[in-house]
Amino acid sequence: MAIPEVEAARILLERLGLTPEQLLEQLTPRVVPTFGEYIPTLITSIPGSTLRVYGTYFDRLVEEWGSRRLTEPTASELRQLAEVTRRRAIIRRNSRGGRSAAENFIAAARCIYRHAEEDGYIQADSNPARRVAKPRRLASTRRAISDSRLAEIVRVAATTGNDPELDSLILRLHIETACRRCGALALRLMDLDPEQCLVFLREKGDTVRWQPVTPTLMRALLEHVADRHADTSIKTAPLLRRRNGAAITRRHYDSLWNRIGRELEWVARQQISTHWLRHTTLTWVERNFGYAIARAYAGHANPDGRIGQTATYVRASLEEVAEALAAMTGEAHPLAV
Hints:
This protein has 337 residues and is mainly α. The chain has 16 helices and 3 strands. Helix 5 runs antiparallel to helix 6 and helix 8 runs antiparallel to helix 10.
């Protein structure tokens, strides 16, 4: 025979959609880990691209608060540590008073606390990182490079260094596709479509797209594969390689621009990088073919309410992107009308 109080409790739990086990879990407090305990575990589940940006700041939090539990620091303490990080930032030519260091530190802290919320260690209303604002981001100093200056960059890449063939190919790939550095590094043999002159790009935010390239660039990429890949049957192998067959890394880009900067003082002074090529191509496309086609050319994520609903209805097609490429390069493309 059921005890009335127990039966009443059972009925209440059913109405609340809870089981006795769930209720017991809620009543048993979880032991909140320290920063030194939680961060090493957390980084094993974070993508490498995110870790490259936040890794330094994760280390900083472990160094400063390694023995403190996640629930201990206040919003004011996070703000103070962000300010210390800003003041200690390495001063470079394009530095802006350490604003990006402070912004990245706060973003790293938010990343940690967001995962701590998901793991049930803290509640959203007690998350101190939610109450710390990032510094306002200033406008980028990057801009489109003029045709004459771009020609100088291409000339230096093609006539200096120990592998001008590879460097010329890399620059042409970025100029034609406006891809990011990560997109070029992620290229695989299976990402080439010679028949339609397309390359498959994987870029930040897990965005993917087929991007038109000229027949000339496609031939150069296929020749590069034939010359530098020992086994072309491995379709998942990185595409861009040095003469010894090793795949290029981010360091190759650093070396390339350092060399160009030694030859062209204005490149070093303004700290020109691969991303400036993206600005150059997309600016030309926008001026000549409009915003919708420039957005598709850039491979930006699908529009949402923040940029206006009209953008949802004016998305450009792959054929329109191919037409823009053909007009920019003066070379016919199979998909261009």
